[in-house]
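User: Run a structure prediction on this.
Assistant: Running it now.
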Amino acid sequence: MADKAVTIRTRKFMANRLLSRKQFIIDKLARMYEIKDPNAIFVFKSRTHCGGGKSTGFGLIYGFVENAKKYEPKYRLIRNGLDTKVEKSRKQLKERKSRAKKICGVKKTKVGDATEAGKKEIFSWEF
């Protein structure tokens, strides 16, 4: 059975053009403005209008990728593949949440400072 070749048959193969829409816009902008490196183009907030046929959005074009890395928010760099996302463990997120719960009041303190200061500092109220 393992020696025979495998045959795969497909029916109703459909291509979704919407999946490559963002890349199509980036390629079109690169040709229009003669951009050599398409990684310096950031397209975001694309919205389709009711009825179709028209979409609007925002785009930023940088001269160099280094400038884009300097000024763009980290989440956009991650979306464009210029940065990597740091995966935090579930336990770290839960511990941070529980530490933040212990802080009450309007006094500006860091999460770590409240546990060191003692319970008097944790429940301080200012009006």
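The helical segments are 21-32, 65-71, 74-79, 90-101, 111-117, 119-122.
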